[in-house]
Amino acid sequence: MTSGAHADSYVISTKAGTDEARPGELTCLVLDAETPGLEWLDPWAGLGMRGNASRALRLRGVEVPAENLLGTEGDQIWYVFEVVAPFFLMAMAGTYLGVAQAALDATEAHLRERTYEPSGEALADMPVLQYKIAEMRTAVLRARGLIYHAAVLGDTRSATALPTIMLAKAEAGETAVRVTNEAMTCCGGIAYRDNGLLARLLRDARASHVMAPTTDVLRVWAARLLLGRPLL
Asked: What is the pLDDT of residue 19?
């Protein structure tokens, strides 16, 4: 649970409570932080992603008022994909675009300021590093363009808005990983300092592939929507 034990409320899902509920029919509920029966488990202690304060939540005899229901019973799939996902995925895409941009900015600054000691040549004058900078910036610009395009489709309620938004998040995540990885190479040993900026950006960028919905899943979902197939 993101922001576990810190937020005022949380959105959780549970099996639909109707007698006619079929497998896969889930319900979204708002859970107030002061609700009796909440038991928070150990805080997240993983590779990066320190700022999201994730931790597991155990519910023991928790009662949630009917007015805390989001949407209607059993419609979580619709609610998640039509209400929550567009905003959530756009926020995630913007976040990972920011990670990629930060890594690019740090790399360009490093190359402008440093020289190769044995020859005295400025790093910014080395063709191989110039080439890498051009590729990194192209990747960031491409991802930014796709994100803006997806946002326009969402604002205009285009029929292709949701799959494009899914692809934007997937592309932003892949761009963040690719750019931060190249940044580590361009900046050399100094980039590997313990808890340095690029090291933090690299480990957080890598999480983009496993933070749900994962990159692979998003591409499959987008293709299903574009081909007129059931999403799930």
From this structure: 64
